[in-house]
Amino acid sequence: MNAIFRISPRAVTPRLFMSNILAPAVIKRWAATSGPTTSGNGVVVEVTDATFQSAVVDSSKPVLVDFYANWCGPCRMLTPLLTQAAEAAKGQFVLAKVNIDHCPDTSDKFRIEAVPTVLLMHKGKVVNSFVGVLPKPQLDAWLDSIKKLQ
User: Fold this and answer.
1) What would the pLDDT profile of 78-112 be if each residue is shown by its tens digit?
2) Residues tagged active-site
3) Is pLDDT at 147 greater than 60 in this prediction?
4) What's the predicted TM-score (pTM) here?
5) Alpha-carbon torsion angle 37, 43, 48, 51, nearest 10
6) Domains of the chain and any CATH numbers
7) Distance of alpha carbon 33 from the chain centroid
8) Residue 64 — φ and ψ, nearest 5°?
9) Integer distance in angstroms from the first to the last C-alpha of the chain?
10) DSSP letters of 41-67?
11) Residue 8, burial from CB neighbour count under 10 angstroms (0-12, 13-18, 19+)
12) What residues have CB less than 8 Å from 37, skipping those under 6 apart?
């Protein structure tokens, strides 16, 4: 019996399919050659496995790390809220976006099991986190914890 038939259809998640079955070499090649992509204002940064260390861990500012996927509905709801908060904060923190389908090593390092997952990192350490979409008032209260870091 071929090994591919032993995999249960439930075991093949979109992340498993993209990162382990479809094209891991292509994804790793893309991640290794792509630099961080920033928004026009510099507060939102798209990072890869290769750029995570320099963009997030070595950052002098607090960094909100948003682990997301393009196919994730809740991620699409949370993205505008986080982007607005980052722009309103006027440089108090950086929003780093990590696409789990393109960055399997970083996702595995932080044991991301669900998206969206948001980590607050400061001086290379995880200070706070949440999973899922928070209501705006609760998100604003959570973001206030960033002010305590400065």
Assistant:
1) 999 999 999 999 889 999 999 999 999 999 999 99
2) 72, 75
3) yes
4) 0.73
5) 90
6) 3-149 (3.40.30.10)
7) 18
8) -90, 120
9) 59
10) TSSEEEE-TTTHIIIIIT-SS-EEEEE
11) exposed
12) 45, 46
82: tokens are 């986080």
Say how far apart CA 108 and CA 100 lie, in whole Å.
9
> What gap in Å lies between CA 70 and CA 36, rounded to an integer?
17
User: What amino acid is encoded at 103 in this protein?
Assistant: C
Q: Residue 99 in contact with residue 68, Cβ under 8 Å?
A: yes
Instruction: Give the containing element (helix H, strand E) for 118.
Output: strand 117-122
SS3 category, 22: helix
Match 């050659």 to its residue by tokens: 33
Half-sphere exposure of 86 (CA within 13 A, CB side): 26
Place of tokens 């990192």: 121
Non-local (6+) Cβ contacts of 44 within 8 A are 38, 83, 86, 87, 94, 95, 97
Q: What angle do CA 20, 21, 25 make, to 5 degrees?
A: 65
CB atoms within 10 A of CB 53: 13
